[in-house]
Amino acid sequence: MRHEALIFASGNRNKYVEMQELLAPTGMRILFGGDVKSMDVEETGSTYAGNALLKARAWAHATGLPAVADDSGVEVRALNGAPGIFSARVAATDALRNEWLLEQLARKSAETRGPADRAARYVAALALCFPEEGEIIICEGICRGSILNAPRGAGGFGYDPLFLPDGQDKSFGELDRSVKQRISHRAIASFRLVNMLLRRGMLQ
Fold first, then answer.
1. Upper half-sphere CA count for residue 162 (Cβ side, 13 Å)
2. pTM for the whole thing?
3. Which of 35, 40, 71, 117 is catalytic?
């Protein structure tokens, strides 16, 4: 069955703006969850995919619309992959989350008496749930890079000002939007999702 619209299962407008652009090739209208319904789905999953699926299912069944949900985070090698799925939960605001990450790396450097390994990766999982068909599609994307010593740039959101993607000399907070929309973790997951929908004949 082909659908004319799907809902982005989140009240995060920053993510919605990105996803609206990334999913444009589907030809479907992408509705912002925050404009349709107020929902707070508890993220009890142990993986990004698990949390994305919880949100997609909840929104799809609550609205009757196909729902796509994102769960994402940054994983830092020196912190054994933290903050990971807890990336949005270590502090109340993006600025405080960035401060938290820098403090954790400074503490690690003090413990080891040397520079901390700042290698990192951004990970995103997208889950798309079709309530009528009961079909679920899950795709993941990874963008590798490193954590800067201080935030750079006012663009993006989350840990973007601290994240320097491999092969670039600008943080996600500094990069032109068109570049980020090609190489980010969320972009890669979205490309895979669109391709899966095309292969299954679910797009016009």
1. 25
2. 0.93
3. 71
